[in-house]
Amino acid sequence: MFWYFVAQSTGILLYYSSDMDYTIDDVIKAREALLSEKSSKEVKELLRSPQFGALFALLKTAPAEQKSQLGKEVNALRAEVESWAEAEAEEAVEPIDVTAPWAPNTPTEKRPRLLDSSLGSQHVLTRELEKISEIFQRMGFAIEESRQIDDDYHMFESLNFPEGHPARDDWDTFMTDDGLIAPAHTSTMQNRMLKKYRANLETNEPIAVVVPGRTFRNEDLDARHEHTFHQVEGVYVGEHIEVGHLVGTMKTFLGDYFGKEVDVKITPFYFPFTEPSFEFSLTCPFCEPEQSDCAVCSGEHWIELMGMGMIHPNVLREGGINPEIHTGFAWGFGVERLVMMKNNIEDIRHFNSGKLEFLRQFGGTR
Ligand code: DAH
């Protein structure tokens, strides 16, 4: 009996003896067929393929003395096919989702360096502006944001301050060379609000809008004056609207904001965009009338809070509204002043100072 070693490319040695009934070709051909199907079939399928079936059939019928040799070869082929599965598994790279956030249990040192969100908190002005807007929203007002850059028309002309009007000086602010203006009050939004909501009047709905916004003035800075501050503008237009509605609206708002009823008084004043115009004061919510050492009102017991009035007919007309049919009121108050009062803050400059000792008093854990 002559034995030959046939070296396979895989390194598996197949034995061949010249007097066997099967030929080495049967195994080699089966192997080649399996190799060609390798890419399209799973290893499990290859192991159940007709090629293996034929080899097993051959094994059954092979003469006894050849069985063990043929068995070895078939087993070697099976082992090889099985090894393809391992190789495939090794080759397959675990997919990574690069957009997945870190798992909750990732230790801090494996995360990017970030501040703990509990260290930060809302700025007191933002918090209060949200409260103020929320109260007005409950009272049925729409909320619109003012803009931080505007033009002469919205700042003055649409508000009944024609060119050269002396009252323009009272709203001294910053202006670019090409005439854009950092708005000195949120009244810049009045004309836009009248135009945007005037269709309400056709269906007997009022115009009721509150406009919080950032405002700017060319000021000498001190404990009560800042160049950048916030105002909340209010506009209400309907039929048969009078000063009493204005006072009632503000009293309702302030009662909710301070959590207690406040007494208010109005004193005649002048604004080009309202007629009549008033200054609005409230009783100090923090002291009793006879208490003379109150830090908030210095014992005066009245605190002047805002300007307001009945919207001037020229302003209504400029917004496309007929003042013979519809009347309305408007107001504008400084948010800082209200927040200072509520929280007993003595200097308006604290708000923009970025001082942590100040900010931490109003939220956050540190
Ligand atoms: N814009 C005024 C100011 O900044 C405040 C004001 C007064 C607003 C009367 C109004 C108003 O809407 O009707 O001083």
Task: Describe the secondary structure blueprint for this structure.
Layout: E1 3-7, E2 13-17, H1 24-37, H2 43-47, H3 50-61, H4 64-91, H5 124-138, E3 142-143, H6 152-155, H7 190-197, H8 199-202, E4 207-216, E5 228-238, H9 243-258, E6 264-269, E7 274-283, E8 302-311, H10 313-318, E9 327-334, H11 335-343, H12 356-359
Helix pairs in contact: 3-4
Bound molecules: 3,4-dihydroxyphenylalanine.
CATH architecture of the largest domain: 2-Layer Sandwich
Question: On the 0-100 scale, what is the average pLDDT?
Answer: 88
Report the biggest beta sheet as strand number plus sense, adding barrel if it closes.
7 strands, mixed
- The topology string of helices and strands comes to EEHHHHHEHHHEEHEEEHEHH
In CATH, the topology of the largest domain is named BirA Bifunctional Protein, domain 2
Indicate the CATH class of the largest domain. Answer: Alpha Beta
What is the percent of helical residues? Answer: 25-40%
What spatial form do the alpha-carbon principal axes imply?
A: elongated
Structural class: alpha+beta
**β-strand amount:** 15-25%
Number of domains: 2
Overview of the structural elements:
It is a single chain. The protein folds into 2 domains: 3-91; 121-362, Bira Bifunctional Protein, Domain 2 (BirA Bifunctional Protein, domain 2). The longest helix is centred in the N-terminal third of the chain and has 28 residues, at 64-91. By secondary structure, the chain is of the alpha+beta class. A hairpin with a 4-residue loop joins strand 6 and strand 7. Helices cover 34% and strands 18% of the residues. The chain is elongated and about 125 Å long. A 7-stranded mixed beta sheet has the order 3-4-5-9-8-7-6. Strands 1-2 form a two-stranded antiparallel sheet. The chain has helices at residues 24-37, 43-47, 50-61, 64-91, 124-138, 152-155, 190-197, 199-202, 243-258, 313-318, 335-343, 356-359, and strands spanning 3-7, 13-17, 142-143, 207-216, 228-238, 264-269, 274-283, 302-311, 327-334. 3,4-dihydroxyphenylalanine (DAH) binds at residues 185, 187, 233, 271, 273-274, 307-309, 330-332.
